[in-house]
Amino acid sequence: MKTARVSVSPLVRTICLVVIGMLFTKVKADDWPHWRGLFRNDVSAESSGWDGKSWIKGELWRATVGLGSSSPLVVGPHVYFVGWSDNQDSIYCFDVSTGEEIWRQSYPSPLYGRFAVGDQALYSGACSTPECDTASGLLFTLGVDGDVNAWDTNEDGKHVWALNLHDRYQVSQRPEVAKRKRTQRDYGYTSSPLVVGEQLIIEVGAKEGNLISLNKHDGTELWRSENRDEAGHTGGPVPITVEGESCAAVLTLRNLVVTEILGPNAGKTVATYPWTTDYGNNIATAAVAEQSVIVTSAYNHSAMCRIGISLDGASKMWETDGVASGVCSPLVHKGYVYWAWRGVHCVDLETGVEVWVGGKVGSQGSCIVTSDDRLIVYANNGDLTLVETAGRSPHQYTELASYTALSKTDAWPHVVLSDGRLLCRDRDGNVCCLAVKQ
């Protein structure tokens, strides 16, 4: 007899998981323990700090942490960074209030992945944002050459286990996948691991599976995905609930793929939607909007697409023409989609129609949204801008304030807002911590 699936709404499921997580872990509402924040969507529970007249209230501290595009993480009183220098990746733990270094751990690592092809001035050093599991205190890092490491933050970063994805799974160089010739690119490993319960899920891009699940405590393999695409170059897999089933969405080198990640069907492909880009530049992380996923890229696509997901597959809901993001991941908030790439853009979530665009943003940009409905945009070589969302400014781009945080190199890493502190980093590893409240 076939067992019926009980449908649980994504909202109810999310609320339950959040409540349980806060009861049994040390996570706080203003923590930023994952790529794109507490809920992995660049939505902050904190106010921007705008008081009607001023925004940035001063600089608290500065530091240098090494080369890379990895974003900071904040958990409780600590902030974590990963950076490359002197042929090694280093994991730093600082006091978030003072910038004092508490501990540091390092391991040998090359500047580029072993099969690196193209754009090496942009993709080098520590590219993947670490993943912090607040339940166990483990911090997981993924190096550009496939080195996975687990560190115990409760014991000054004590090393717990390690493996190399190339060595274990014989991952080969990413092929040329676009119709246009001479567009092959391989940036090494860029995506953040994803902790779900006892699992550490990584986009490996191996012939055995695009996603591979490991036991977070010792690195032993739990399952492999049916999909066997090569890994994309995005920020990592994103949790999504599809008709009550826990899944992960990932933009591979070839497709948007949604995979079940819990229960007896873990590893099963739920939906696939083709999305191949010249230069292998599926860069922007997929964004979940209820039971749909938004993907975007430039080059031969130059489009953004909303894709409905069900247990029966994927279907296109809308697709823009020429309205796209080449790098910045889409941010979904209160019926709109925002991103910062060649301007700050706002698109209606239901229709895909662009609502407004503005601002001086080039190819380097990211944004987060605050609890008082403002966007914090980090762009160019370290420019911060505070912008009204469409909820406050529905018809035009409205800029409230700007501030130059850093000025040396590309502002690829996302900013982090935690407990009134705004943490910024550039690709050279220069870090500054700014106060947005008195």
Automatic annotation (TrEMBL):
Which Pfam families is this protein grouped with?
PQQ_2
Top-level taxon of origin: Bacteria
Pyrrolo-quinoline quinone repeat domain: which residues? Answer: 135-356
**InterPro entries membership:** PQQ_b-propeller_rpt (IPR018391), PQQ_rpt_dom (IPR002372), Quinoprotein_ADH-like_sf (IPR011047), WD40/YVTN_repeat-like_dom_sf (IPR015943)
PANTHER family to which the protein is assigned, alphabetical: CELL SURFACE PROTEIN, OUTER MEMBRANE PROTEIN ASSEMBLY FACTOR BAMB
Q: What protein is this chain from?
A: Outer membrane biogenesis protein BamB
